[in-house]
Write a structure and sequence with these properties.
Uridine Diphospho-n-acetylenolpyruvylglucosamine Reductase, domain 3, eight-stranded antiparallel β-sheet, about 25% strand, about 30% helix, Alpha-Beta Plaits, five-stranded antiparallel β-sheet, alpha+beta, about 400 residues, globular
Amino acid sequence: MDNPTVLRPATEWELQRLLTEATQTNTTIEVVGAGTKRDIGRPTVASAVMTTTSLTGVRLYEPTELVMAARAGTPLARIESDLAAQGQMLAFEPVDLAPVVGQEAGYASIGGVFAMNISGSRRIAVGAGRDHLLGVTAISGAGTAFRSGGRVMKNVTGLDLARTLSGSWGTLGVLTEVTFKVMPRPEDVATLILLGLDDAIAIEALTTALGSPYEVSGAVHLQKELAGRLWHQGLKDEHSAVTAIRIENFTPSVAYRCERLKQDLKLFGDVHVLGTESSTALWHELRMLSVLQGTTAPLWRISTSPQNGPKVVRAITSFMTCHAWYDWGGGLVWAEVLPTSDAGAADIRRVMASHGGHATLIRADAAVRGSIDVFHPLEPGVARITSRLKTVFDPAGILNRGRMYAAS
């Protein structure tokens, strides 16, 4: 529909009423927060758009308990501003996917972050977004209000509905409030840089760093093509692949760990160290996915074992041009490929079947996203469970119909 009705519920009871009516009339609903990621996933079949942007406000913040609760439409920027004022942060540093798909940066909602389970480079040290989610309040597709979890981890018993909803992309229910853990900001940060390594050697270096006792909180490798797009002028001017390892802690500890880790990594080449200001700038732009912006080339997000990362990229490259950025020590690969009728899906699915892992198409034309499996195809057993969950939460199938899978 060219001009779908836009629904902006300002209260939970209003949202509940709207979903109850939608189920009764079989009115399909596209669920969005701020709408910054509407162009990710399959094009949604919907008669109306429901946005949570009127459900805003921090409902609870206890800095000493490291807990915050906020309504789902609260801007992520507001959350992080409040946390920064207390020297705290969202430790899983959610990346901003909006500018990667041509939307404006900085407008994501906290509900959208958890609905899509978005995590950044620090995931290797602190876990994914859903691992920080303590509880949710939500409305199912049938219009039933429910709450799961609480304000401490021990409140989670039985089926963990909070984590079930995290990563469901709005296909099971609409989040109205989320409660989550926060953490203190580290006092200092430094980054060890290795230049010019090929993919396999770079992943070996990252594995060495992650296997050390020095609490690495970021481990990435950018191939030369993508490193050349960095905003960090010093690294961009090197015209070579960049391997970066982040150390965070108290200042004396950061200095000590950097020196020890430099010794462990000297077999891989010269190790350069970026100080606090330069490191902060680099990891901020990586969180913004800077090197993936400014192009419409198809982009895949691939999850595999770290040691298989270079093998997966090499296999994809045998079929098509591919530029890669490895995160999470090699376990996450952002792969940019040339445009084709299926964005390379057939060959990439073949590669994943041989090497193991999952591939999700993040960026492509709507026509391409509507004609292929954007999310990795589910195994039959998992597909049956997913279908049953969908039936329980959204019996009429009105929420984000078709966004994740064609039949859902």
